[in-house]
Amino acid sequence: MKIGMVDIIERKRDGQTLSKEQIDWFVRGVTQGEIPDYQTAALLMAIYLQGMDRRETVDLTLAMAGSGDELDLHDVAPFVVDKHSSGGVGDKTTLVVQPLVAACGVPVGKMSGRGLGSSGGTLDKMESIAGWSHDLSLQRFKEQLAEIGLVLAGQTADLAPADGKLYALRDVTGTVSSLPLIAASIMSKKLAAGADAIVLDVKSGSGAFMPTKEAARELAQTMVDIGVDAGRKVTALISDMNQPLGHAVGNALEVAEAIETLRGEGPPDFWSHCLQVASQMILLSKRARSDEEAREQVRAARDSGRAFDKFRQMVARQGGDVSQVEEPQRLPQAPLSQQVVAPEEGYLASMNTSALGWAAVHLGAGRQTKGEAIDHAVGFVMPVKVGVHLQQGEPVATIHARSGEEALQAEQEILSALRWSREPVESLPHFYGTIQGGQDGSFGR
Ligand code: URA
User: Which residue has the higher pLDDT, 167 or 241?
Assistant: First the structure.
């Protein structure tokens, strides 16, 4: 029977499932620009409202993964492991985890993206380093992966191009936060990038796409199922994003914090996060037999300085100024720094983490319009965490800004994102659970 777009839209609108042939036909049509945006948008809204079952979600993901180039890195790396974060505030995990894992002997070739909304992007952070480039040909990507086991590149337009088209339409049709569409979008890019094993860091909380643990868990389970059905090994961690990760928010400030962490000095919550993600990557690549053994390897990679050396090598190979890695005070610095203090005595009860992310964006650390230039030097460092007790006037954050006016606005935004309590408040956990290869791990607080 001839497949048609109106029929596909009507089926989904009425809550029926789409066949693999219909999904393949739709994704091919979108990729080749043959389906008008109004029909694609109508189907996206029908999927948003009616959902997709596991088989449909897997078929959609595989069709999107196959819509462009599919990398095969096995000629340079016998087993390819990748990670993905669903995005958060202060999330500079890739900068630390990639060199840690590479220093344990597991090659990591990763494609990363830019900031989205209030969450930062790895490429924006790395571009704080003068001269560093993410723009590598496939041949250079492979050469570097073979030679130093570590490469960090930008996502090419030829990888899962259907996702680029669908994402742009979702962004303007109120259909971004659909679970099967997010899962297919993320996993199609990971599958096309050639990973044998993937660690997913799914964030939950006020600074994340998924505001609740339950929603994050459902997204994580869906992505694990897709990976398993596509023959890949996948572990999903559900991690907290009800406060920024580490202390620094803003590009150069985050690079400096990542370097500090590789040197064994970073914030404890951030190190514990990196240790968990890196050890899961080591476990998936079968370099360790137990969680403890994997953690030992990761700690040794940091303590011996091997991970820091890997990061330095990667920066050098990609044209970056290594002196800024060796002396992070040479990274871009904002002309002005201003302290924010506690307005009253009390316990820090909660943070609106997305509002904190937006405070950094408004300072210039992120984009408010597509393609806008960003200021790598600005942002803030906030060493306080939920549950801490402060006296009135004790420091909460240090803002790094271009002007006094911008610093003042950031101060107001930061203070209004924080809630205080007279009663003691429990600190937040780092992780809420793990989902492995289709079966549940621990979950819950
Ligand atoms: N990240 C993606 O790549 N796609 C989504 O849909 C959401 C987050």
Answer: 241
Q: Which fold has domain 334-421?
A: Aldehyde Oxidoreductase; domain 3 (3.90.1170)
Percent helix, percent strand, percent coil in the chain, to nearest 5: 45, 15, 35
Alpha-carbon gap, residue 302 to 297, rounded angstroms: 9
Kindly report the backbone phi and psi dihedral angles of residue 214, in degrees, each rounded to the nearest multiple of 5, phi listed first.
-65, -45
Which one-letter amino acid corresponds to residue 443? F
Is 189 a catalytic site residue? Answer: yes
What residue segments make up the domains of the chain, in order of their start? 5-65, 81-327+430-443, 334-421
Average pLDDT for 260-288? 96
Report yes or no: 393 and 357 within 8 Å, Cβ to Cβ: no
User: What phi and psi, each to the nearest 5 degrees, are found at residue 69?
Assistant: -65, 145
Give the residue whose CA is nearest to atom 2 of ligand 1: 186
Any ligand 1 atom below 6 A from CB of 185 = yes
* pLDDT tens digits along 181-223: 999 999 999 999 988 999 999 999 999 988 899 999 999 999 9
Cα(167) to ligand 1 centroid in Å equals 8
Which fold, 81-327+430-443? Pyrimidine Nucleoside Phosphorylase; Chain A, domain 2 (3.40.1030)
Secondary element (H or E) of residue 366: none
